[in-house]
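Re: weekly structure request thread

Next one in the queue (483 aa):
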Amino acid sequence: MNTSKYFFQTLIVVIVSGLSFLAFKTFLPKKLFTESTFNSKNVVVDSLLLEAIAEDEGEVAEDSMAKTIIDYKVVNGIQFPAETFEDYTGNQYVATFFEKLFQLETKKEGNVRIAYFGDSMTDGDLIVKDFRTYLQEKFGGQGVGFVNITSESASSRSSITHEFSGNWKTQSYLKVKRPSNPFGVNGHVFYANDTANVAWVKYKANKTRFASELPRPTLFYGSSSNNEGKVFYTSGADTIVKKLAPNKLVNTLTLSEGNLKSIKVNFKQADSIPIYGFNFDDGKGVHVDNFSNRGNSGLPIGSFDVATMRAFHSKLDYDLIVLQYGANVLNYGSLNYGWYEKRMAKVVAHLKECFPGVAILVVSTADKSTKYDLEMKTDSAVVPLNTAQKRYAIKSESSFVNMYTLMGGDGSMIQWVEQEPARANKDYTHFNHRGAKEAANLIFTQLNQGYETYKGLRKKRKKPVVPIKKDSVIINKDSVYED
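Done, posted below.
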């Protein structure tokens, strides 16, 4: 057997293959593949995002804001210092939220509520759990807030044990454009339509700090012509039955005025009644509701029914709405996000119509790494998307947290994944529990710094002189300020 002959033939094949690869390399895309272990079949892409991309493909965001100086107007005697585009936080636009925190901190009464909307980055109460804890540690408050009837992330949520029967019908604003009843504030509506089997949901408090009990479990449900619906649950040795009265756009039913360790609620003859979820809070301090949806771009929020949201607002009274999106918007190969900037500005305007008086905080996309030429680097879409998010925050008069820069900027996700102990997953996109806690701390720290600055400005502000009436003549009719 002529082994040398086969050796030289093999060597020639290897050389030719190598030369062919080098010749064709220039024609291959630099972005070959991503190192991702994320289960893509669990990601739902909302149709509104696909439609927006198709309609506005090629739209380029203007760069005129890059050198903009943002000056703020005096509101109630408060004026935050002007900011550059680069360092924009927009604390002026959450001044009403800061004032509510101040009243809570100084008078030890009332409560503050936050709706935290997000995508898979906040799935399973990641980030939000720790953000809630930081706030409750400083300002008080007990409970995890609003929880869905069913959830795709229930098994991974550590802040509460959440179980439910498999016969619930669910409609989500990621999948349904025209629901049979309006979506709840959580972007979902649930139905116990299985008349042959009882639909049930069970919640159990864990040892989570400030959430070791379920304070005042309260059911939220919608309007229906069905007046036969009931819920029943056990309390000690007793079975308690309560009738549903679906006569308003949004109805509530408090199952206990005290705190429970767990509760299992069964729904009987409740078909056609829209069920939204349960709320757990003690009515004091700060409460943060996690409304996360995998695959959400943020655009579906624009489909909220105004009347329904105002009905929720009248019961929950939100002071701040947080929008943390971006991971799903990065996946389409575009570096122009003018379409997203424009659409999300409309979403914020819609939210302000749904929740009058609410302040908005935009949390930007985090860093994400992708493999280029066999090397992991920050994805080329991160900075353009981050810029578009900051631009729509400024245009819509919203506050802004730049998660990308706070976590370290270019290449930071690589460090979060590869340093020990790891703070992010091997998909180079999502934080693990350790990283989520740090991300929550970054958001809380910036917000708290803004609050402390607000307190300083508030202390120095001039007090308005109250107009005095004398012989039907108003003296000082234009309010002036004095020390």
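DSSP finds ten helices and 26 strands in the chain. The first helix runs from residue 3 to 25.
Next request, please.
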